[in-house]
């Protein structure tokens, strides 16, 4: 079992692969967009730690104050992603990554660690049962089943910003909030723009490109939030069939 891990830094960022999109062998604009995003975030205490081989084994977290999520709290780490895929599953890598984050939080005097969860496992979320085995508990919830999970060291807890619980916006047209933290988003935006142009579908694409915009989001997921007729629809990336189902409502 390989236990050689590496943390991304501003010095090695250009040469290290981003293992959340390891399957792409061709040049990928989404990867470069994420590299640029990370180049700024790393100076804010953002951590991207991965197995030092071409594999999808990594954790990504940041101080909650500078994490691009609509969550309020003091002195916490926020875990964006923790993924172990393929042949590396079941070998204890997830434990090693979470234990590193816990040790880092305690060394830096943090009050705890939090992450996005759900009453039932949802797409794009790390394994909920895994987090709860480490002692994470639901400390806040939304009306559509999302939970804020927290592991508190001192009894304090974070909470969702009130705007994140609204799940509604004033605009009635197809509206998508997105950022470039996830490399898959770049291509999906291109496909949706092309579809809407060809089919005369009004669309508003709102790039979340500042911390303030992220903290003011009308849904809990920072990377991707789809609204139609003023209502929240999904955090899942869209294919044509899914897009057409939403537009028929």
Q: What would you say about this model in short?
A:
The protein is α+β, with helices and mostly antiparallel strands and 249 residues long. The chain folds into two domains: 5-161, Aminopeptidase, CATH 3.40.630; 164-247, Glutaredoxin, CATH 3.40.30.
Q: Provide the CATH top-level class of the largest domain.
A: Alpha Beta
What's the N-to-C terminus distance?
50 Å
Task: Please indicate the percent range of residues in DSSP E strands (runs of 2 or more).
Answer: 25-35%
CATH superfamily of the largest domain: Gcn5-related N-acetyltransferase (GNAT)
Q: Major sheet: size, sense and barrel closure? A: 7 strands, mixed
CATH architecture of the largest domain: 3-Layer(aba) Sandwich
Q: Radius of gyration in whole Å, from Cα?
A: 18 Å
Mean pLDDT: 92
Tell me about this structure:
The protein has 249 residues and is an alpha+beta fold. The chain folds into 2 domains: 5-161, Aminopeptidase, CATH 3.40.630; 164-247, Glutaredoxin. It contains 6 helices and 13 strands. It has helices spanning 29-41, 93-107, 128-133, 185-198, 211-215, 240-247; strands at residues 5-7, 47-51, 57-63, 71-72, 76-84, 112-118, 137-141, 146-152, 159-160, 174-178, 203-207, 224-228, 231-234. The model has no long low-confidence stretch (mean pLDDT 92).
């Amino acid at each position: 079992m390989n236990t050689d891990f590496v943390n991304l830094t501003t010095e090695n960022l250009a040469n290290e692969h981003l293992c959340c999109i390891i399957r792409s062998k061709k040049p990928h604009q989404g990867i470069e967009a994420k590299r640029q995003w990370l180049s700024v975030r790393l100076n804010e205490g953002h951590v991207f730690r991965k197995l030092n081989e071409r594999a999808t084994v990594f954790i990504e977290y940041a101080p909650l104050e500078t994490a691009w999520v609509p969550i309020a709290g003091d002195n916490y780490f926020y875990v964006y992603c923790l993924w172990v895929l393929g042949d590396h599953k079941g070998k204890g890598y997830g434990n090693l990554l979470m234990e590193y984050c816990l040790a880092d939080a305690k060394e830096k005097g943090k009050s705890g660690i939090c992450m996005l969860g759900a009453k039932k496992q949802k797409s794009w979320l790390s394994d909920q049962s895994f987090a709860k085995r480490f002692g994470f508990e639901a400390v806040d919830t939304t009306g559509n089943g999302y939970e804020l999970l927290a592991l508190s060291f001192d009894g304090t807890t974070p909470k969702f910003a009130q705007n994140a619980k609204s799940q509604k916006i004033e605009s009635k047209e197809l509206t998508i909030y997105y950022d470039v933290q996830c490399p898959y988003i770049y291509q999906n935006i291109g496909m949706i723009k092309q579809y809407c142009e060809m089919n005369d579908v009004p669309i508003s694409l709102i790039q979340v490109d500042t911390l303030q915009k992220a903290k003011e989001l009308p849904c809990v997921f920072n990377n991707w939030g789809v609204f139609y007729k003023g209502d929240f629809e999904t955090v899942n990336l869209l294919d044509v069939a899914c897009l057409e189902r939403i537009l028929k409502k």
